[in-house]
Amino acid sequence: MSDWQTLLQQVEDCTLCPLYQGATHKVPGQGDPNAPLMIIGEGPGQVEDEEGLAFVGPAGQLLTRMLSAINLPRDRVYICNIVKCRPPQNRVPTEEEAAACKTHLREQFRLVRPKLILLLGSTAARQTIGPEIRITRDRGTFFCKAGVLMLPTYHPSALLRDPAKKREAWEDMKALRSKLMELGLYEDIYGPYENE
Ligand code: SF4
């Protein structure tokens, strides 16, 4: 069994925290396993739980448009969440749930080996960079953790609730695009950039 198959089976069989009890489907994540850009959100919502895929509901559709706006095809990034099972009523995962599920996230880091990580929302940013992160203060700033650059921004569901935040989110997407270009990752991997 390949490392990826092992990971998917471990998530499928996982009972490390109570969230598996309410899950219709586990949502391990999907995308390009060799992507230099990894995107991490909080946890599956209703549509994701029904389909077993990350970011396929309304917030996911907005994420796809955000990536398209900087000319990144969604299938060329790897997308996953801090927790792989839907928390009841989409509540924020507890510290214990997030800690338990990092077993799988760490394995995803090891397999994908991303150069850049886009962190969607407070939970993803705090669980990945550190508890001191405040999304409204720290979004748009690159952090280096374990040799990997990480950029926190708003979660697309926050943008759906408060469209006024979209202007800042667009600035963050442009910063992401610039960093990919600076690192020489943009054109080689995603094709020539076309002006918006
Ligand atoms: S959320 Fe993660 S740790 Fe908890 S049961 Fe699901 S896969 Fe396991």
Secondary structure: elements and pairs:
Elements: H1 3-13, E1 30-31, E2 37-41, H2 46-51, H3 58-69, E3 78-81, H4 95-112, E4 116-120, H5 121-128, H6 135-138, E5 143-145, E6 148-153, H7 156-161, H8 166-182, H9 186-190
Parallel strand pairs: 2-3, 2-4, 4-6
Antiparallel strand pairs: 1-3, 5-6
Helix pairs in contact: 1-4
The structure holds iron/sulfur cluster (SF4).
The site of iron/sulfur cluster has 15 residues, from helix 4.
Description of the molecule:
- This protein is of the alpha/beta class and 196 residues long.
- The protein has one domain (3-183): Uracil-DNA Glycosylase, subunit E (3-Layer(aba) Sandwich).
- Helices cover 44% and strands 13% of the residues.
- The protein is built from nine helices and six strands, in the order H-E-E-H-H-E-H-E-H-H-E-E-H-H-H.
- It has a six-stranded mixed beta sheet with strand order 1-3-2-4-6-5.
- A hairpin with a 2-residue loop joins strand 5 and strand 6.
- Helix 1 packs antiparallel against helix 4 (95-112).
- It is globular.
